[in-house]
Amino acid sequence: MRSIDLDTSSNSVELHIFLDRSSVEMFMNQGEQVITSRIYPSETSLGVKLFAENGSVELEELSIWSLEDIWK
What we know:
Elements: E1 15-19, E2 23-28, E3 33-38
Antiparallel strand pairs: 1-2, 2-3
């Protein structure tokens, strides 16, 4: 698991997550902070979790788009 420190003085964070079969990229506040990581999920792994340590988080808006498989 990775973590970063964000400036939360505005009480809002814009988060874009790009997830595929073997990688995840997260862009916070239009690239102010970026995390890129390889992932190795099992075939039964489903979903994404959003959480805050030592605090709370409220999701104001969520949009999801599916991409076509380039290997088909």
